[in-house]
Design goal:
about 350 residues, alpha+beta, 8 helices, about 35% strand, binds zinc ion
């Protein structure tokens, strides 16, 4: 028995998956028969912005098991997750499936159709900083509320899929939520490893403040005591078929680790590199950002990362790395605004032991 399998036997079987025969209630619809249901969670209009909806495909397996929530398109300009969800809905055969896959095909339809990086086109809020949301709030807050109450609350495991956004470079990675306030971290770590991605970053939830400040979808899952992972692939708003393939394959591999599908038998990528946490690099000036390099690499503390020029061409800020580590993603620019972080630097570790 390999270590992941053993881990699963120890953690998954006991902690998560006492199979439930209860029907799933979603958007007022009762789902209990094996097969596929495509539905819309309707989100009514608010005081100041219009109604919207969340398209969801539910694949109910022929045998009971975990309820997995995969969310695509929290950021509407990050296209790989939305394209991967479309593929996954067709590729997962309910006859082969153990448990239930709830697939949010585009969490933020207004941002997607509006081609709006980071924020909602109506209220200009970042959905991934707006959890748990509010039923009577602005559109972003209403979407967050629906995701929290209708989907995350009904899942046993939560995956949130992203990319580098409109002007953002990014190295592919899986983020696993651990630390004392995370639930079933070992299950999330096994899922992360089964995704066959080159990098795994651990985010340790050590305090309630870490969960609450600008609460993301993953942190909402932590607050709801669900094991959870973030997956990030692709950059600069691209749509690259190879990266969509890698994301689909990763999600199928992760489902294998949960016992929902047969475990992958294909070639394995080299062992992933492990990283711990993330430091941001906030800047003080708005203007035109000229990064030294827009790709992943090791950086030294104090190393110059780029300069910001004003609209007369003068250098108004030279930005250097506050810590040493691995540059994981960052702002490709050229637009930059005071208060933005231009890079996320993570700390390489040999393992998570
Ligand atoms: Zn994103």
């Amino acid at each position: 028995m390999n270590p992941i399998r053993l881990l699963r036997a120890l953690t998954v079987g006991v902690a998560l998956y006492v199979p439930s025969l209860a029907a799933l209630e979603l958007g007022g619809q009762r789902i209990e028969e094996p097969g596929r249901v495509d539905l819309r969670l309707e989100i009514p209009a608010g005081a100041e912005d219009p109604a919207t909806f969340i398209p969801v495909t539910v694949l109910t397996g022929s045998r009971p098991g975990p309820v997995l929530l995969v969310v695509a398109g929290v950021h509407g300009f990050e296209f790989h997750s939305i394209l991967a969800a479309e593929r996954l809905a067709d590729e997962v055969d309910p006859d082969m499936l153990v448990g239930t896959l709830m697939l949010v095909r585009a969490a933020h339809v207004a941002a997607f159709e509006g081609r709006s990086p980071y924020v909602n086109p109506f209220d200009r809020k970042n959905l991934n900083r707006s959890f748990p949301g509010a039923a009577d709030g602005s559109q972003t807050e209403r979407i967050a509320h629906a995701l929290s109450t209708e989907l995350i609350a009904k899942a046993d495991f939560v995956v949130d899929a992203h990319s580098g956004d409109g002007a953002e470079w990014l190295e592919a990675f899986v983020g696993v939520y651990g630390g004392p306030l995370a639930t079933d971290y070992e299950v999330a770590l096994a899922f992360s490893k089964a995704m066959n991605f080159p990098r795994i970053v651990r985010y340790s939830m050590n305090s309630q403040e870490a969960i609450d400040r600008g609460r993301s979808l993953n942190r909402q899952a932590v607050a709801a005591k669900r094991p959870t992972v973030l997956v990030e692939i692709g950059e600069n708003g691209e749509r690259d078929p190879a990266k969509v393939d890698a994301l689909v394959g990763g999600l199928l591999g992760g489902m294998g680790s949960l016992g929902m599908l047969p475990e992958a038998t294909g070639p394995r990528a080299p062992a992933p590199r492990f990283f711990e946490g993330e430091s941001s690099v906030p800047v003080a000036h708005s203007g035109i950002w000229h990064p030294v390099q827009s790709s992943g690499r090791l950086v030294e503390e104090g190393e110059v990362l780029g300069v910001i020029r004003d609209y007369r061409g003068r250098v108004v800020e030279t930005v250097s790395a506050p810590v040493a580590g691995y540059a994981l993603y960052g702002l490709a620019g050229p637009p930059v605004r005071a208060g933005d972080s231009v890079m996320a630097i993570t700390r390489p570790v040999t393992s998570f032991e």
